[in-house]
Write a structure and sequence with these properties.
Distance between the termini: 40 Å
Structural class: mainly beta
Order of helices and strands: EEHEEEEHEEEEEEEEEE
Shape: globular
Helix content: under 10%
Radius of gyration: 17 Å
Largest sheet: 16 strands, mixed
Strand content: over 45%
């Protein structure tokens, strides 16, 4: 039996440098966001469109997939804010991650803090997210024009104690003049989880970060009420060297 083939990304590491935000070493420690509404969905992508967009350090998920996430945060030390991001599902070694290529937020304060701590570079937008009896619905608008509408239809509540696996996100960040991928660290305490069928009435691929990444077949859609603890970043990854070859290190 032949050895399994490992797939790696082919994106040059130098293409991250123009977008990398300087990482700010803060002393805030843990930041808790209470009763966050999290709308999260996965869609398949063609593998041929994913490999050129991942750096050599990352493996694609199989099947190739794209993740869409919207948080509605009503309280916490960062104030009230809504945020949405989209990223390619990938792996560092065997660990699932999402490499973010587009993000939006409606709070300047939250945007600045997330950019400095995790390299999550958000553009300003109007974001809404709500749950009704038959669906979860989220929308992102820029200058009054919808660029994302995400729907999870016919949501069914899961048994108490159910959770959703939210893969940690990776963002390019500048650390002392060198570009690295920074992992956004978070812990989740679930109060309620619903699962349904995801649908994308609106998805402006270019506005969401990459015109060549267009979601295809829906995989899963969830809506959850969660307490989120944002932790200081712990790991960085060299875009050229896979984690299993020593490319991962502590920040």
């Amino acid at each position: 039996m032949s050895a399994p083939e490992l797939l790696y990304g082919a994106r040059p590491a130098g293409t991250f440098g123009t977008k990398a935000a300087p990482l700010v070493r803060d002393t805030a420690g843990e930041v808790v966001l209470k009763n966050v509404q999290v709308h999260y969905s996965l869609f398949e992508l063609p593998m041929a469109s994913v490999l050129p967009r991942l750096p050599k350090a990352l493996h694609p998920s199989v099947p190739a997939a794209i993740g869409l996430t919207v948080w509605r945060c009503a309280e916490g030390s960062l104030g009230s804010f809504n945020i949405a991001w989209v990223g390619v599902a990938c792996r560092t070694g065997i660990k699932p991650r999402h490499l973010i290529h587009g993000a939006y937020c409606d709070s300047e304060n939250a945007s600045a803090w997330l950019r400095g701590r995790y390299g999550l570079d958000c553009k300003p937008a109007t974001i809404s997210s709500q749950e009704t009896w038959d669906r979860g619905f989220s929308r992102v608008e820029v200058a009054g024009v919808p660029i994302l509408e995400l729907v999870t239809e016919n949501p069914q509540p899961l048994v108490p104690g159910s959770t959703v696996k939210y893969s940690p996100v990776l963002n390019a960040a500048d650390i002392g003049g060198a570009t690295a991928l920074i992992q956004m660290e978070a812990a989740f305490e679930f109060h309620r989880v619903l699962r349904g069928i995801p649908r994308l009435p609106v998805y402006a691929a270019e506005a969401m970060g990459d015109s060549g990444l267009v979601p295809h077949y829906p995989i899963s859609g969830t809506w959850a009420e969660v307490d989120i603890t944002l932790l200081p970043p712990r790991f960085k990854l060299d875009p050229e060297i896979p984690a299993e070859q020593g490319g991962a290190s502590r920040v």
